[in-house]
Amino acid sequence: MSGRSLVYLHGVEIERVKGVGGRLGPKLREAGISSVGELLMHYPRRHVDRSLVVPISRVPPATEVTVVGVVRAITSRRPRRGLTIVEAQVVPDVDYEIRSAPEGVVAVPLDEASGMPVMTFASHREAASWIAAEVPGIAARTLGSLWVTFFNQAFRERQLPPGTEVALSGKAEHFRGRLQMKSPVVDVLGRAGHRRTGRIVPVYPSAAGIASWRLEEMIANALRRSRPLDDPVPEDVLSPLGLVSRDEAVSGYHFPDDERGRVEAHRRLVFDELFRLQVALALAKHRLVDESEGIAHTLDAGLADAFLEALPFALTRAQLRVIDDIRRDMASPHPMHRLLQGDVGSGKTVVAMAALLTGVQGGYQGAVMAPTEVLAEQHFLGLEPLVRRHAVRMALLTSSSPDRESTLERIRDGTVDIVVGTHALIQEGVRFRALGIAVIDEQHRFGVHQRVQLREQGDGPSPDLLIMTATPIPRTLSMTLYGDLDVSMLDEMPAERPDVTTEWVGADDLPRVYNRIREQAETPCGAAPGGRKAFVVCPLVTDSDKLEAASAIAEYERLQGVFADLRVGLIHGQMRADDKREAMAAFRGDRLDVLVATTVIEVGIDVPCSTVMLVEDADRFGLSQLHQLRGRLSRGVGPNWCYLLAEPTTAEAQARLAAMVATNDGFRLAEEDLRIRGQGTVFGERQAGSGDLRLADILRDATVLVAARRAAFSLVAADPDLAGHPGLREEVRVLLGDKVDWLFRS
Predict the structure, then answer these.
(1) What whole-number distance in Å separates Cα of residue 700 and Cα of residue 685?
(2) What's the CATH number where 527 sits?
(3) Burial annotation 155-177 (CB, 10 A radius, 16+ → b, else e)
């Protein structure tokens, strides 16, 4: 090595950094910073350019600006109960203050303990010239004061004692002869005697309440001991992209010399994050596809074709195209590893069934894993009658299956051709006689590890894997989340699928919505017995399942009074499996008109007679979730109505609801949802939030992502085990952690 690597520094305990000590070490560990490597990867959330901030004496009124100064005085008062006002005087960060005095003009040191003398001059110009000449690094300017007011933020008095250096961002206005700023954004840059002028200052995200300036000192100390940093990325990858070295990037992003250096450092660190992920995805694809012994399925036995020909509707061109893609994969001796994307109602289940029957016709078994018992049962109830006529035997396996042991035995001895289940399929005791193809529905509910577990439930060659999602995924996110998969897309909807009219309503509109529900309940549903049906969806108020259920129960009880003339049912995640099964059966049949539900009905629920949905507190849901919920309609008869009941208080929530009203296109909504929710954790189960990426943004950095993907897959193709790149191999293993541990097992 030419220097210390990030892998090595991730093994050096944080307490070894000067300035951490015994008191701050536990705090940093609580914040997830337990090593020097993690400290160096605690990047600034922004930078303040001390050469570009507006001097206090020149702040334009009624304009958003950032100023830097020193707190000279701070006070608090309580003019009335429930109101605390903290007021601070902030002055420019110069060592001398220029004042008018009876004896002329004086320059007074701001820090009285500094020992610097009070100087007297004939004019302000003469005083400024002296300061510029005699005080190194301090720009001469006439002192101004900014008065900063905080309302009900009593902690500011403790946070900003006199002498604290701060950056303030907000709108300044003149009031009663003083320049004032109300409740600005505050970044504490330093402390008394901790002057930082003429450079770009990093501002760090909070870590266990440790001030930004103290984190800066720790990181500076860590860098001094750590540099030069070793660079595991090959030069032939970096050079064509014009990327700076790892050492320059880490140092230059924490402490940039200029804006250009900061931008170049940021670009390299973004590349590193995306490159590590893409290397891991390339390794995963190699392990799961290229290195694995697969099954060359037979395509001419006729079972899959007989199933498709017996369907009472014609397939779309998109379905036919994707079925051809899948059959080509299944005929190969390498295992299929394919993602099937399709909007709600585009016909993914039929495509998956054709794939499953292609496996069954050659003597292999198939498995379908769904995220909830409700969805697994619906798949079973919907598909079993269709394949029974072709002498295909199906079974249902969930954690609450009453005949679980006998089902497990039938899976082991091969008397079950296709099993539909939940996570129960990857639990101990499940073994297939000859698993040939596995289908995972609603992939965003599962992670890579679950995919691998399902593939390993059978003996012999690796089964083919088809992963389905009804949550459309933007191309950049698809390359990051599913970069190890081939992608097929159902981009065409069946012609007979009715439209859904979406309306954003308020409380005053509820009588009209309730009348629509009653009107539909009285309207016959084609040849089916009874009238059309309505969902009323209640939000997840908190992460607590009990509160989720209680919210639905309260609305169920209220609506029984509102719809005294209708039959109202209830389903939520905390109900016993048998009760959920009974509620769905009653709603599908002719025993319920209205079903009050939580998001347990978000995916896959197919009730052809449901034509109305009321989503309460719709502003609490993400766009993707709202689109999935709306997809429970238009499954059969039409017209259909989706009412979004909400009084949003933020511009973001208003934009989400407006987008839902404007389009039924899931792919357009997915782009907007990605901007709102974040890009997700790639290798774990959670798909929202900042996840594996600290600096990279896959929408903003799409060009870098494409370059990182191309470089990573090319490198792994030439060196599948990274034997020639041991530093990079270790970095991927250590920095991505146990989420990719399976890649490095023999």
Answers:
(1) 24
(2) 3.40.50.300
(3) ebbebbeebbbbbbbbebeeeee
**How many other C-beta atoms are found inside a 10 Å radius of the C-beta of residue 492?**
17
Alpha carbon separation from 94 to 56, 66, 140, 339 (Å, rounded): 11, 17, 8, 61
What CA–CA distance (Å, rounded) separates 581 from 514?
Answer: 26
**Strand 178-182 to strand 165-175: parallel, antiparallel, or no bridges (unpaired)?**
antiparallel
Distance from C-alpha of 380 to C-alpha of 392, rounded to nearest angstrom: 13
Lowest average pLDDT, out of 72-81, 193-202, 298-307, 692-701, goes to: 193-202
Q: Can you give the residue range of the structural domain that contains 564?
A: 500-663
Q: Provide the domain count of the chain.
A: 4
- Is 14 in contact with 39 (CB distance < 8 Å)? yes
* Predicted pLDDT at 719: 95
Q: Is position 341 within any domain?
A: yes
**Mean pLDDT, rounded, for 349-359:** 93
Q: What are phi and psi of 262, to 5 degrees?
A: -65, -45
Tokens at 466, concatenated: 């088809």
Nearest of 390, 321, 372, 358 to residue 463 by alpha carbon: 358
User: Per the domain annotation, does 86 fall within a domain?
Assistant: yes
Q: Quote the tokens at residue 739.
A: 């989420």
Type of residue found at 532: R
Beta strands in 491-635 (DSSP E): 500-505, 524-525, 528-531, 533-537, 568-571, 594-597, 610-615
Quick check: 120 and 106 in contact, CB under 8 A?
A: yes
**Enclosing H/E stretch for 433:** none
| Position 196 in a domain | yes
